[in-house]
Write a structure and sequence with these properties.
This is HTH cro/C1-type domain-containing protein. One of its GO terms (molecular function) is DNA binding. It comes from Streptomyces xanthophaeus. The chain is mainly α. 68% of the residues lie in helices and 0% in strands. Helix 17 runs antiparallel to helix 18. The longest helix has 21 residues.
Length: 431
C-alpha cells in the first residue's frame, strides 16, 4: 500500500501520512483514527477504540493468553533475512501512533493494545526458552544433520539482526537443543548459538544466564578450533564483567583477547574481531570516566575499521564491524563518560542507514535517547525512542533498558501523549 493510497482511504494527503510515519505530526482525530484502523485492517479494539457499530469483537482478539502468540515451531525456509517489509512496518508504526492518539484522547491504556502487551512479554518468553534449552529441559529433538543446523543458525542470526523476537524465541532454543542432541560435530554451530544467546541475555539484563552461555560459547569455540569465536566469547565476558562493575577485569579480558596472535592469522575477520575488542575496551574505560583514554582506544578501533573501506565484516555473527559501528559505540561511550552533548554530536555524524542491521539501527536511536535524557532534553529523548520503536518494535518493547528509561521519564517530568503511548506499549504504564 502506497502513501497516496493510504491517504486516500483516510482523508489525509500522502505528505500528511508521511509526517505521521516519521513522528512529525500527532494523530488526534478519532474519526480519522477509525479510518486508519479500517484501512490497515487493524481491529479497532486493538487501538483502544470501540468496535465499529453493528460488528462483533474479533473472537481471536479475545483469546490472548498470558504468553505471546508465536509462530508454529517447525523448521522451514526463512522469509526476508534482512531489511523490513515496508507494508508491515507501516502498519506497525501507524498502530503505534494510533495507540498514542488513543492515550491522548483519554482512552483506557490498559486495554489499548494487547499486541503490544504481548511484545512487552516477549523478552521473558525468549529468556525462559533459552534457559530451559540450556538446562536440557526442552523436549527431545531428533538427530538433525549438520547442514540443517547451520541453516537454522543462519536464520536465528537473521532473526536477531532483524529484532524478530517472536521467531527467535522458538528458533534459538530449538537450535541449542538440537545441537546438543546431534551425533555429529556440532561444536561450531553451538559456539555461535551460545554467542547469540549471550548477546540476548545481555540485552535483556539476565547476567547469570549470560555468564553461563558465554562460558559454553568459549568452550565450544575452542573445541571447534575457531579463534574468532573464542575472542568473541571473551568480548561478551568482558561486557558481563563491566556490567558487574569489574572494570579492571573487563579491560584485561578484552585487551588480552585482542592481542591473541591467532586473530592476526585470520585475515580481515580476525582484524575486525580485534577492532570489536578494542572498542569494547574503550567503552569499559568510559565507565571509569576516562574520556581521553576512551577516545584513544576508539581512535585505534576506527583506524582498523577504515582499513576495510566501506566493507562491514562479521555482520551476521558479531554485530558487524565497520567505521559506522565504531561510531555507534562512540555515542554510548561519550554519554557514559559524562558528556551527553559529545554523544549527540557523535550521533549526528552517523547516518543510521549506514549501520549494517536493524538491531544496530535500533541501538543507535536508543543510545541517542539515553544521551538526550542525560542532557535533560525530554522531547528529543521521546522522539528518539519512537524512532527506535519504528525500527525494532519487539526489541524496544521488551528491553529492560528502554523500560527503565521510560519509567524515569514518567517520574521526572510532564507526561505527554507520546510518552504515555510508548509507556503503554512497553508495559510500563498499565492503567
Amino acid at each position: 500500500m502506497t502513501l497516496a493510497t493510504l491517504g486516500s482511504l483516510t482523508g489525509y494527503s500522502a505528505a500528511q501520512v508521511s509526517r505521521l510515519e516519521r513522528g512529525k505530526s500527532a494523530m488526534t482525530d478519532l474519526a480519522v483514527l477509525q479510518r486508519f484502523a479500517q484501512a490497515l485492517d487493524i481491529p479497532p479494539q486493538a487501538l483502544g477504540l470501540a468496535p465499529a457499530t453493528g460488528t462483533q469483537p474479533d473472537p481471536l482478539s479475545q483469546r490472548t493468553g498470558p504468553y505471546p502468540s508465536l509462530p508454529a515451531p517447525t523448521l522451514g525456509t526463512p522469509g526476508r533475512q534482512d531489511g523490513e517489509d515496508p507494508v508491515r512496518t507501516r502498519r506497525q508504526l501507524l498502530a503505534n501512533l494510533a495507540v498514542t492518539a488513543a492515550a491522548a484522547m483519554g482512552a483506557p491504556v490498559a486495554g489499548a493494545a494487547p499486541v503490544k502487551a504481548e511484545e512487552a512479554q516477549l523478552g521473558e518468553t525468549l529468556v525462559a526458552g533459552l534457559r530451559d534449552a540450556m538446562l536440557g529441559l526442552g523436549r527431545t529433538t531428533p538427530d538433525a544433520p549438520l547442514d540443517l543446523l547451520s541453516a537454522e543458525l543462519h536464520r536465528a542470526s537473521a532473526d536477531f539482526n532483524n529484532c524478530a523476537y517472536s521467531s527467535l524465541a522458538l528458533r534459538l532454543p530449538r537450535l541449542i537443543s538440537a545441537g546438543h542432541s546431534s551425533t555429529g560435530d556440532s561444536s561450531p554451530v553451538l559456539a555461535q548459538a551460545y554467542l547469540l544467546a549471550t548477546r540476548i541475555f545481555i540485552k535483556l539484563d539476565e547476567p547469570q544466564l549470560g555468564w553461563m552461555a558465554a562460558d559454553r560459547a568459549r568452550q565450544f569455540a575452542a573445541a571447534a578450533g575457531a579463534p574468532v569465536a573464542v575472542a568473541e566469547a571473551a568480548r561478551q565476558q568482558a561486557v558481563l564483567a563491566r556490567k558487574a562493575g569489574w572494570h579492571d577485569q573487563a579491560l584485561t579480558l578484552a585487551l588480552n583477547a585482542a592481542d591473541d596472535p591467532a586473530l592476526r592469522e585470520r585475515g580481515n575477520a580476525g582484524n575486525a574481531q580485534r577492532g570489536l575488542l578494542i572498542q569494547c575496551a574503550a567503552y569499559t574505560v568510559a565507565h571509569q570516566r576516562d574520556q581521553s583514554g576512551m577516545r584513544t582506544l576508539t581512535s585505534e578501533a576506527t583506524a582498523i575499521a577504515k582499513s576495510f573501506g566501506a566493507v562491514t565484516h562479521l555482520r551476521d555473527t558479531n554485530g558487524g564491524f565497520s567505521w559506522a559501528t565504531v561510531q555507534l559505540h562512540l555515542i554510548s561511550a561519550e554519554n557514559t563518560a559524562g558528556d551527553p552533548s559529545a554523544a549527540i554530536a557523535a550521533a549526528d555524524a552517523l547516518a543510521p542507514q549506514a549501520l549494517p542491521t536493524t538491531e544496530r539501527r535500533a541501538l543507535y536511536f536508543t543510545d541517542r535517547a539515553k544521551a538526550f535524557a542525560q542532557w535533560g532534553r525530554r522531547d528529543e529523548c521521546i522522539r528518539a525512542l519512537l524512532q527506535a520503536e519504528y525500527w525494532a518494535p519487539q526489541e524496544t518493547h521488551a528491553r529492560p533498558a528502554v523500560k527503565s528509561l521510560v519509567s524515569g521519564l514518567l517520574l521526572s517530568g510532564r507526561t505527554t501523549p507520546e510518552l504515555r503511548g510508548i509507556a503503554a506499549r512497553t508495559g510500563v504504564l498499565h492503567s
